[in-house]
Amino acid sequence: MEDKRTHELPELYAPNGGEGPYSYSQNSNYQRGVVEAAKEKINEAIANHFDIQTFCGTKNPVCIVDLGCSTGANTFITVQNIVEAIKLKYKSKGVNAQIPDFLVFFNDNVSNDFNTLFKSLPPNRQYFAAGVPGSFHGCLFPKASLHLIHSSCALNWLSKIPIEVMDESSPAWNKGRIHYTNAKKEVLEAYETQFAKDMESLFSRAQELVVGGLLVLFVPAVPDVMSNSDTFTGTELDILGSCLMDMAKVGLVEEAKVDSFNVPAYYTPPKKLKALIERNGNFSIKRMEVLNNQKKHLILQSSSLRSLYLKAVLEGMIEKHFGNEILDELFNRFTHKIEGSSFFLNPETEKLIILFVLLERNN
Amino acid sequence: MEDKRTHELPELYAPNGGEGPYSYSQNSNYQRGVVEAAKEKINEAIANHFDIQTFCGTKNPVCIVDLGCSTGANTFITVQNIVEAIKLKYKSKGVNAQIPDFLVFFNDNVSNDFNTLFKSLPPNRQYFAAGVPGSFHGCLFPKASLHLIHSSCALNWLSKIPIEVMDESSPAWNKGRIHYTNAKKEVLEAYETQFAKDMESLFSRAQELVVGGLLVLFVPAVPDVMSNSDTFTGTELDILGSCLMDMAKVGLVEEAKVDSFNVPAYYTPPKKLKALIERNGNFSIKRMEVLNNQKKHLILQSSSLRSLYLKAVLEGMIEKHFGNEILDELFNRFTHKIEGSSFFLNPETEKLIILFVLLERNN
């Protein structure tokens, strides 16, 4: 299953081209709001915690990585912000002349479209660029070779579906559903356990950072006190699962196929993530707060647009599991079901948050 | 024109799959001979000149780049050889425990198929891998960030066609030909001048190497004393040009189009390359010798195979300039012309050499 997931992940962020009603440029106001709010946090993080005295000699380049960069424009905007913030710090300290070279590694799964990424690199960039293929749940870089690791909206994707939820003999068997939203508590626990394992492997990136190096995370998450059905994505996955079950009842898909299909997306509450960081011990928490996306009210609201968006995210995953002939029927049913729902009409209903987490590598 | 060339370059090394009569595996004996002979040279170079004392601290990774890596298997074999040779050196010096991490950068033009390269990375490789897109005639890496630069069979491709050979008013105008082989001396001089500029930009890679770092080159070249018509490629380009002119005479292509088409491939004599290295001054020449390819007798001899090989190399370039409708006619004519020639029957006729050049960065 790992392959299926990794194969599909990049779809999530691959923007539709052009300027039409379904184009990224017309539908990315929410995402652009995240990038803008993140810029401020990155600037503060670097101003207050990026230690140019200790770990930037005049000769060594500053090495930065964006984990889960995908192919799109957002990674270039973010990386540019990071480089500018570090340069600004040199200037503000009056050590202008010592500004080092920058080497930026763009990381994503092997199945990511690096050709497109490379062709879109900004021609006037102020850094050297390299692509690094591979899951960030494995080892990617030499020891102590990085100064800053960034990752935005990637950690919510688990490295794999928890085995138990697909195991008939397990109490966590997720029969008739495709996600933990509204499922029995054992299913949620299995997802939580997998997320904890994934965070442990992410935090082993610490050895790839120099001492004092920064891990800057933007994590799609949920408030500590809430029901999982209070996020658009959770609710949508629940409704999509019910559409699949409807189709199983009329013989359009096998019910066993629905039982074995699960979407490996997990949204952590801040408290749980904090506990995982502290248990791991490689990092000190410098900041942990909810990002204030001032464009939250621009979230997609029409049922057809939300359906298209979810289809873009899950299409490949569904196709691989069920075959492509069910796609139109499934998403027609889905659009129809959410049309009747008032849930998506009010952006305030959406409880999903983006958590900004700034970690510093311990000695 | 630069784009056209860079777009097509990777084709040269992209091996045909499978095991059929036109597959790379059936036709790569000559190339494999180069890789095998190169291995010995690389081993010696590292044993004698890679200074593990000076520039490999225990904490910093050894950084290696392959310039012009393409997508294929050869780059992985070569990189593996380099890593093993350096490890062997650590072992032979009894500093086993200090063997550092290795970070290998695979470089080629932006148009190279990095997706394929990344998917083919050996799963059990002993190094961290990154892809770096861009021409090695421009700046690619931070200052003093590399320990060894390797490039095989790439320097014979010029960064662009010399402008003069396409300029009607220039004495170097290459009317009716597509290469300098058998052309007037001004054409050859224009190619030589472009090659000299390209080598100057290659040698500026010195600043990206640490002091004492190595530049290991395998350069398709010609003996100092010979006629350019004594190489298979030169002769083939000359014949291909004559086929194009034949087609122009019967109205199948425009003559002006032939006049403006030139193949940016140059094969240097060793003496000229040596002079360019010395004039540049960034490097000391540690070794410079002809590679002994013991599989030279396995060079492709049949006219149809040579035609296919040349087509694979030039197809995209020709298509971009003339359109794809002329391809079949052109290569049919070409195959027919070389069928009558005894030139390609004897591998000893081929005077092309592979020059091994080992350079060390000066202080």
From TrEMBL, chains A, B:
Keywords of this entry: Magnesium, Metal-binding, Methyltransferase, Transferase
Cited SUPFAM superfamilies: S-adenosyl-L-methionine-dependent methyltransferases (SSF53335)
Pfam families, A to Z: Methyltransf_7
Annotated GO MF terms: metal ion binding; methyltransferase activity
Name used for this protein in its record: Uncharacterized protein
Biological processes annotated in GO: methylation
Skewed-composition ranges (Basic and acidic residues): 1-10
InterPro entries to which the protein is assigned, alphabetical: MeTrfase_7 (IPR005299), MeTrfase_capping (IPR042086), SAM-dependent_MTases_sf (IPR029063)
